[in-house]
Write a structure and sequence with these properties.
Layout (H helix, E strand, L loop, with lengths): L1 H38 L2 E2 L7 E2 L3 H7 L2 H33 L6 H13 L2 H12 L5 H6 L9 H28 L4 H9 L4 H12 L1 H16 L3 H10 L11 H10 L3 H29 L1
Length: 291
């Protein structure tokens, strides 16, 4: 009898230790997620009775031109910044992992500094840099290019800011992946006559594929949820007005929340979730096939 009680306690103990996390996860994540899914089928202003309307929110959303415009803007930010934030940080990580760079701790800290800098402070700095009349870039070049006012330049200004902020984070991820590679593999390849480029392309990059998969999925999730940078940089420069040329899906979600359309906002949120899920699964499948 005592052995049975002891075994029961041993089995129950781990669940008791993780129960605070499970409880908070259910209360603050599972319940709001399920509630928002149910709410997406209702018309609800945040007060009064919720009216069931079926899939009308989704029909209205998919027929709304601004929804597709926000998706196009989000995909633009994602696709354009993807290659620079993978290639440049990987090359920096390779350099820092080699013996070519001195003062590595200082260089690492300097490159990672944009990631820990406040987004608000970063947006203010870039607004000063890109300002039309008083901006640093226009003053240096002697021009008056409307970086934050002309639709042709708005999105590119945001992409530059995104790349600048992301370089340090991806560099650290790739640097951590490089430390897991056994140096004896590269030494053996060098003995066999492989040069530095051949060791990089035939040993380092293939071994780093799981790290690349992790980084690209994380970047996908972050890019599709992009909100702060475009809002602070362009909207802040235009006295709080949201430009259709730069708005993202999250901008559309917040617009519906501010307008009291909680059902439509929930539909936007779940549409975003489906898009992130589909893109992530496609990326996993593509990377798995390449392996």
């Amino acid at each position: 009898m005592r052995s049975r009680l002891s075994n029961a306690k041993d089995k129950l103990a781990p669940y008791l230790f993780i129960s605070p996390f499970l409880l908070s996860f259910i209360v603050f994540f599972v319940f709001p997620a399920v509630y928002s899914l149910v709410l997406s089928f209702f018309r609800y202003k945040g007060y009064g009775d919720a009216v069931f309307i079926g899939i009308d929110n989704y029909k209205a959303l998919f027929s709304y031109g601004l929804f597709w415009r926000s998706i196009a803007n989000t995909l633009f930010y994602y696709i354009v910044h993807l290659i620079p934030v993978f290639v440049i940080p990987f090359l920096l990580a390779v350099m820092l992992a080699s013996k070519l760079v001195y003062l590595k701790k200082f260089v690492k800290g300097t490159l990672f500094l944009p990631q820990i800098t406040s987004v608000v402070a970063t947006a203010l700095i870039f607004r000063i840099m890109f300002a039309t009349r008083s901006g640093v870039i226009n003053n240096v070049l002697g021009t008056q290019i409307p970086f934050l006012e002309d639709p042709r330049y708005m999105k590119w200004s945001i992409v530059i800011m995104l790349i600048w902020r992301a370089l340090g984070w991806f560099m650290v991820v790739f640097l951590a992946g490089l430390t897991t590679i056994d140096e004896s593999l590269k030494d053996a390849a060098a003995i066999d006559g492989a040069n530095a480029f051949q060791r990089l392309t035939r040993i380092v990059i293939p071994i780093m594929k799981p790290i690349f998969a992790f980084a690209i999925v994380m970047d996908t999730i972050t890019s599709f949820k992009l909100y702060t940078e475009p809002t602070l940089l362009v909207q802040g420069a235009q006295s709080g007005r949201i430009s259709p040329n730069t708005m993202t899906i999250i901008n559309l979600l917040t617009m519906n929340i501010n307008g009291g359309a909680f059902g439509m906002a929930s539909a936007v949120g779940w549409s975003l979730f489906i898009m992130i899920l589909m893109v992530s699964l496609f990326q996993f499948k593509l990377l798995r096939e390449n392996n």
